[in-house]
Design a protein that fits this description.
This protein is α/β, with parallel strands linked by helices. The protein folds into two domains: 142 residues, Beta Barrel (Lyase, Ornithine Decarboxylase, Chain A, domain 1), CATH 2.40.37.10; 226 residues, Alpha-Beta Barrel (TIM Barrel), CATH 3.20.20.10. Strands 1, 11, 12, 13, 14, 15, 16, 17 and 18 form a nine-stranded mixed beta sheet that branches. An eight-stranded parallel barrel has the order 2-3-4-5-6-8-9-10, surrounded by six helices. The longest helix is centred in the middle third of the chain and has 19 residues. It is globular and about 65 Å long. The mean pLDDT is 95. It binds pyridoxal-5'-phosphate. The site of pyridoxal-5'-phosphate has 16 residues, from helix 10.
């Protein structure tokens, strides 16, 4: 095992999230460099990974933030982002949450007509807003992550633009941006263009736009031979179409994207220890000291994560099913060829940077892992491992009198 891994594991144990900050920066810069001659703004979708150090690292590269809850807004402000650098794109929120975001001065993004009317009635032209449009296109890796189609709960239907216009006119609302996000794991550059053309059409109804936000959906590679979205191709197609649109619109607008996965997925891995190698009648299970409570994606989305035995790189390849310790079917990977796994070996589960720690929980009363960031060859603990105290922190224990009265 490489010395860096060895030192990190000796010091902090497993399970552990390990992030490569340099790789994160590289991915961010790939996007930054892919859109020639347009005013590009990248709003990092912090739901993917929200550790304050990752937020600060990306801020140092010029990122803004895509926040989906008022709590994410506060975390982004705490990490040093200016309110105008944050776009707040919630769904199913009450009006109070929207006004709280407005009080913080962030760019708001409204995704339904009821909220738009309430907003108009209270703020009229005094605070700008963006509107999330649902373009009704099917895009993305699977139905859980396709969010721009006709059955999706997100956004205002493109067919309701006339209704939006009425509300905007009646209340004098200042619409300064349009937004769409059609899904994650989109490989085909033309899908981005399809969505863009629909948004350009809608944009004609609003004459005070400053930006169009094209959401995200950039795919990453999960295994050998897999490919990520050709970001340069998307960049050149969208930039060209955007410039043409701006010429017709009569003004140069900003072009926004809000990627999460593309920036942090591949830079993260979850390091786990093999506790048990268990031969059954049909398979050989490797049972590890982590589970779906720490990395939900395989069980929730059927997501594929490459797995490597980093402590026996020269061992013979054998077939294993890698499972977690949660009391449910809790499988990280079926039928994987790994270098022979022995008890105590360390496995690296790849592509765990996005929607890994941020979706983790304490199910089965198991604490969340530590997080470690490697930058310039040096490692730093950026979140300590949870302990028993963290499991009961918010619990309120009733007195025995009270309980016996039940
Ligand atoms: C509105 C919005 N923007 C951006 C993202 C980030 O998507 P990805 O992580 O695929 O880049 C998401 C993901 O759920 C989203 O819902």
């Amino acid at each position: 095992m490489a010395t860096l891994y060895q030192n990190i594991i000796n010091e902090f144990g497993t399970p552990l999230y390990l992030y490569n900050g340099d790789k994160t920066i590289q991915q961010f810069q790939k996007i930054q460099n892919a859109f020639p001659d347009v005013k590009l703004k990248i709003k990092y979708a912090m739901k993917a990974l929200n550790n304050i150090n990752i937020l600060k690292l990306l801020r140092s590269q010029g990122a803004g933030i895509d926040a989906v809850s008022i709590q994410e807004v506060y975390l982004a402000l705490r990490a040093g982002y200016k309110p105008h650098e944050i776009i707040f794109t919630p769904n199913s929120i009450g009006f109070e949450e929207l006004t709280e975001a407005i009080d913080q001065g962030v760019q708001i993004n409204i995704d339904n007509l009821t909220l738009l009317e309430k907003f108009g009635a209270k703020y009229q032209h005094n605070y700008p807003c963006c509107i999330r449009i649902n373009p009704h296109i099917m895009a993305g890796g699977n139905t859980n992550i396709s969010v721009g189609h006709i059955d999706s709960k997100f956004g205002v239907s493109i067919h309701q633009i006339r209704h939006v216009e009425r509300i905007v006119k009646n209340y004098g609302i200042h619409v300064n941006g349009l937004h769409m996000h059609t899904g994650s794991d989109i490989l085909d550059a033309d899908i981005f263009l399809l969505g863009a053309e629909i948004i350009f059409q809608a944009a004609r109804s609003f004459d005070k736009l400053n930006f169009i936000d094209f959401g995200s959906g950039f795919k990453v590679a999960y295994k050998d031979g897999d490919v990520e979205t050709d970001i340069d191709k998307v960049g050149s197609i969208i930039s060209r179409a955007f410039k043409e649109f701006c010429e017709n619109y009569g003004r140069e607008l900003e072009l926004w994207f809000e990627p999460g996965k593309f920036i942090v997925s591949a830079s993260g891995e979850l390091l786990v220890k093999s506790n048990v190698v268990k031969q059954t009648t049909s398979t050989v299970f490797v049972g590890v000291d982590s589970g779906q409570n720490h990395l939900l994606r395989p069980m929730m989305y059927n997501a594929y994560h490459e797995i490597e035995n980093i402590t026996n790189l020269k061992g013979d390849k054998k077939l294993y099913t890698i499972v977690g310790n949660i009391c449910e079917t809790d499988t990280f990977g079926y039928d994987r060829f790994l270098n022979e796994v022995r008890e105590g070996d360390i496995l690296s589960i790849k592509n765990a940077g996005a929607y890994g720690f941020s979706m983790s929980n304490q199910y089965n009363s198991r604490p969340r892992p530590a997080e470690v960031l490697v930058l310039n060859g040096k490692y730093h603990l950026i979140r300590r491992r949870e302990n028993m105290e963290d499991l009961t922190r918010n619990e309120i224990e009733l007195s025995s009198d009270c309980l016996s009265a039940l």
